[in-house]
Amino acid sequence: MDAVILQVLNGLDKGSAYALIALGLTLIFGTLGVVNFAHGALFMIGAFCAVTLQRILTFSYSVIDETQKDFLGNPLKVETPYVVSWFGEATGNSIIDWSVPLAILFSIPVMIAVGFTMERGLIKHFYKRPHADQILVTFGLAIVLQEIVKAYYGANPIPTPAPDALTGSFDFGVLIGFGENAIIYPIWRLVYFFFALAIIFMVFAFLRFTTFGMVVRAGMADRETVGLLGINIDRRFTIMFAVAACVAGVAGVMYTPINSPNYHMGMDFLVLSFVVVVVGGMGSLPGAVLAGFLLGVLEAFASMNEIKAIVPGIDQIIIYLVAIAILLTRPRGLMGRRGVMEE
Asked: What is the C-alpha separation between 185 and 181, in angstroms, rounded?
């Protein structure tokens, strides 16, 4: 039972990333009708926002420290971050330590700008083009963006640690009565799961309980009628593209301690996230979230050694096998709407 609970936790952790990326993908497709293959690149850009902020906060200058000597007795040069000199040692080091959570605030305006530029500069010209054209142009954009990141940051993963206070493990065994050390799970992965739930809740609450969100949902259902009422639905959809970019960006920021940022991480998640979207149902936000967590849990169980001993390599294909099974029985996905991509 402890192994089962551990795999459920692993699945919810991975499913959180799938659900957040798929949520943003579905927001874009549901509002603009665009199949955005550059969405994984937005996840990657968010991750490198955390890397960038960490580099900014650790930018330092050299000072001579008379208290430290080399083997010849000469005082050593010590690198002191500007943040430490400005705010004091305790506060400055604390700011550097919490650079990943602080990067959320840093990434939001960056992702809004990237999303707005992407939509206004390129994607708006493909609204009425076939989905194949949209896939080709956005996939090409994704390749361009990852090559830019590769040229600037290099090809190697860049470690971006979580705050020291959140790097330990949580003993689930004691919490649910299994005894000490029965189920040990990293704290940051739990933080990421609850962070994902908070983002998902905020997106759904925004769409359901705000006037702006209600107009957007109406526009998703019948764009022409909303436009005839004198509402600039195109501007609202552009804002929703920026919101979707922010969702992908903050998901990437918080995932950096789990998976060190690298230039191809967006592509790694992109294909799986599109499978999640299709399984959940094209255009269905609840379906995207449900499918994200469901496929994450199934993938976690398929990665167990006991399962792989029976079916080698099953962890690499389980998501696609489940997708085939679901689409054969429910062609629109778990919660797909009639008429979406059926023309």
From this structure: 10
Per-residue pLDDT tens for 41-79?
999 999 999 999 999 998 888 777 767 776 667 777 777
Angle, alpha carbons 64-67-69 (nearest 5°) = 80
Answer whether residue 337 is part of any domain: no
331, burial (CB in 10 Å: exposed 0-12, middle 13-18, buried 19+): exposed
Give the pLDDT of residue 173: 64
Contacts of 223 (CB under 8 A, 6+ apart): 233
Q: What is the CATH number of the domain that holds 150?
A: 1.10.3470
Residue 125: DSSP 8-state: G
Domain span at residue 134? Answer: 2-51+98-329
pLDDT of residue 181: 61
Q: Is residue 67 part of a domain?
A: no
Q: Is residue 155 part of a domain?
A: yes
Strand, coil or helix: 35: coil
From residue 138, how far is each of 18, 73, 209, 268 by CA, in Å? 19, 60, 32, 16
Whether 338 is in a domain gets the answer no
Q: Are 77 and 56 in contact (CB under 8 A)?
A: no
CA distance 271 to 46: 18
Tokens of 208: 């359901």
What CA–CA distance (Å, rounded) separates 142 from 230?
35
DSSP3 helix / strand / coil % (the chain, rounded to 5):
70, 5, 25
pLDDT category of residue 105 using cuts at 50, 70 and 90:
very high
Number of domains in the chain: 1
Mean pLDDT to the nearest integer, 94-104? 92
pLDDT-based confidence at residue 338 (cuts at 50, 70, 90): low
User: Distances in Å between the alpha carbon of 209 and those of 205, 216, 220, 226, 235?
Assistant: 6, 11, 16, 18, 19
